[in-house]
Amino acid sequence: MSTSKEKDQFLKNLNVEELLGRQEVEANISKDLPMRKWLYAWLLDPNIPGNYQKSLDKWISLLIIANLFSLMFEHVPAVFEPNQLKFEIFDIFSVIVFTIEFVLRLYLAPEDEEFKARKHARLAFMKSPFAIIDFLAIAPFYLQFLGVPLDLRILRFLRLLRILKLFRIIIPAIAEFKELNKGRSFRQKVHALVFPSPFGGTAQVIFEVCIAVWVLLSVLAVILESVHSINYVLAMQFVVLDAVAVGIFTIEFFMRIYASPEEPGFKGAVAGRFKQFRSPSTFIDFLAILPFFLEIFLHHLIDLRFLRVFRLARLLKLTRGNDATATLFRVIKREWPMISSAAFIMMLLVVLTASLGYLFEHEAQAEKFDNIPNAIYWAVITLASVGYGDISPVTPIGRAMTTIMALVGIGIFAIPAALMASAFSDELAKERDALKANLFAILKDGHIDEKEALLIRSEAKRLHLTIEEVNALIENAVKEHELEERNPWPVHKIAENPELAVEHFKALLGQIRQLGVHTDRGEFERLAADKHHLSEHELDLWHKIQNKSS
Amino acid sequence: MTSGFKHTLMEIMDGSPNHVASRWVELAITIVVLVNCSAVILDSVPEIHAVYKDFFHELEFWSVMFFTTEYISRVWSLGAKYATSEGGSWKGRRQYIFSPFGLVDFFATMPYYMHIFFPYLDLRILRVLRLLRILKLSKYNTALQDLFQAVYSERQAFGSAVFLLTIATVVSASLMHFAEGHEQPEFFGTIPNSIYWAIITITSGYGNVEPVTKAGEAIALITGFLGLCMAAIMTGIVASAFSNQVARKKAAFEAQIREIFSDGVVSEEEKETLKRLQAHYRLTDVQVEAMLQRAQNKTAIKS
């Protein structure tokens, strides 16, 4: 029992929050530091967890991207002219932010690892490429104020340099990517860039974000294009945007196809690539670019403009790597027989209602129930409890029929929703069971090493478990574990805990069933029928238990 | 020899997994039924009827021939179901002919012959009868049986829901009749008409009949609210009954898997049994795999 006590102690000490890495890390920065050191520690030091360095980087890069867009739209007179003031205010705002950032970096340069050792730290900082870029990003604005006569076009070009500020994020990412992929083949590098893998690092995340931004942009463009007043003004820009988006998506698509033999489960130069092509997410990628090329190559044969609507399917590209959609597809695939049978019943009901409606109402209102397809439309609208009311029965018998069918319909049409809901929770329960089994194995030796902690963490993140849920799972696993080591547990002890008692009863029943499977049943019956062995009641019980299992 | 062929034919028509042909028969019947129903639906559109009249006529003739062949071969082959000692060949046939499926099969072909013998019958009734052929599909899809079983097993809950619904409908309909009967006699003049209004309001709500008096508006408001509750109750009962039914099937299957695994080995014969059971319970490979995994884990822990 001493090991058990140790284990209890261990479980009590187990800090799930820490295990899951969800703890809000308080940056440990003392207040007594000199002003410059303190500021640096809070804002720029990349080595202190919990300070503001990460979020500062994020917001600055968002501002850079916003700047890029504002620059793009300034070239469109229709957008620029009515909103000139807003553009100017935005420009001033971003220059102020960038200036503050630059001054801050300059002021804190002597604290930086890179420049600390130098004699003139600030001078060294000024000469570093990042500082030059930062300076160039704001300089034109001030030059303008100083009265240097600058052409508007040159000014705009200089403002374009602000994009270069993004290098502060991209260059470390590329360096990290190179470091991770040292000595790997070109195809492996492409794979690391486009597919999530341990070799991807930040570069892969940036790649995904870029694709997602372009997806959103191009879908937004398709939606706005359908508004005539906007399309009238921006037709050219939309065409260019679409072409660029398709270009990017095409490159992405071919990169994925090219690199797919590196993906586990897609072996083989041809077979693996074809399998990748057939996989849902890659096929969506293909469909996203297909309309564009079809229109280019076949426009002289047929009018394919209607295909443009399918550009909206690009939104589906965002489902790649989204857990929820993956679970949804898995659930649909798993529950397909039940979903299809529900659909089958719905079809029967619709056809039945429609044909009865047609039968009873055709004479009374020939213009509304003039054929069965119309009656089907009416039946679906009625049964799905939409009830537009544009077609409704008028004859008494038609109304009576509708009354009954509408009542049946609300029940039947709810089945798919219920199925999906229960399947979803079932799927989740299954995965939790798996996690529980894992926890079981992990907790067995009474300690959690780094690898195991990582496993729990990633699983908990994938299943969207809260800390309380993980705690409950661990408790559950321990309880079951104790049940498995039943030996030190006498029956009266099990009986103290009803929950354990139920489990124990289930296990005993299972044993009886197993007994029935292994034994020669005929012989058993013959012996048992002898009153000395089993009473009638007992034999009856035996039969009941055996029948339940077969 | 004939009895051997008869028996084989019976198994094929019955969809037994022992014959490859049974799958083809099932597929053929499904396709013919679907094509037929689409044809009936399209034929009711006057513009399509004008152009493809002859084609639809031809199709109808050949499919009736097909269904007649099917019906006759079913009736004939089912003679092999029971040996003479068990009740003779007509016992099986009688069972089939008066079973729901047998009746559906019979009424699938009957309208055509009726049309031949009674040419002045209303065409629309014939059309609707022909659409009932779609019920033939339920032979191959257990969904309908599942639903009936589910409803049957939850019949008490259904009973009380229907009781509540009846009360809600009758009360709101009669109140509406008193409130609006004089104002809108065409809609609320009789209580049956008001009942129709109440049920439509509770379920889908066409919105083409609106109360005009203040009292009527208040009653309509309450009816709408009641409808929300009633719809939720009905929906919940049907849905949970259906998923319970599914769960029951799965549990039965899993118990069988457990049994198969309890001795630790899976023989060829047991594999066959699994396949058959899987088809019977309409489970996907993924589900079966998960269950097998669970059963294996359980036995692994025990040993």
What does this structure look like?
- The complex is a heterodimer of chains A (550) and B (303).
- With 550 residues, chain A is mainly α.
- Chain A folds into four domains: 35-172, Voltage-gated potassium channels. Chain C (Four Helix Bundle (Hemerythrin (Met), subunit A), Up-down Bundle); 181-321, Voltage-gated potassium channels. Chain C (Four Helix Bundle (Hemerythrin (Met), subunit A), Up-down Bundle), CATH 1.20.120.350; 336-413, Helix Hairpins; 501-549, no CATH class.
- Chain A has helices spanning 2-13, 16-20, 35-43, 53-74, 77-80, 84-108, 113-116, 121-127, 129-145, 152-160, 167-180, 186-194, 201-225, 228-259, 271-278, 280-298, 323-334, 336-361, 372-383, 396-412, 415-444, 450-462, 467-484, 491-496, 498-518, 521-529, 536-549.
- In chain A, α25 (498-518) packs across α27.
- By secondary structure, chain B is mostly helical.
- Chain B has two domains: 2-141, Up-down Bundle (Four Helix Bundle (Hemerythrin (Met), subunit A)); 155-302, Helix Hairpins (Orthogonal Bundle), CATH 1.10.287.70.
- Chain B contains 13 helices and no strands.
- Chain B has helices spanning 2-13, 20-43, 46-77, 89-97, 100-117, 123-131, 143-153, 155-180, 185-188, 191-203, 214-261, 268-281, 285-302.
- In chain B, α5 (100-117) packs antiparallel against α6 (123-131), α7 packs across α11 and α10 (191-203) crosses α11.
- The longest helix of chain B is centred in the last third of the chain and has 48 residues, at 214-261.
- Chains A and B meet through α17, α18, α19, α20 and α21 of A and α2, α6, α7, α10 and α11 of B.
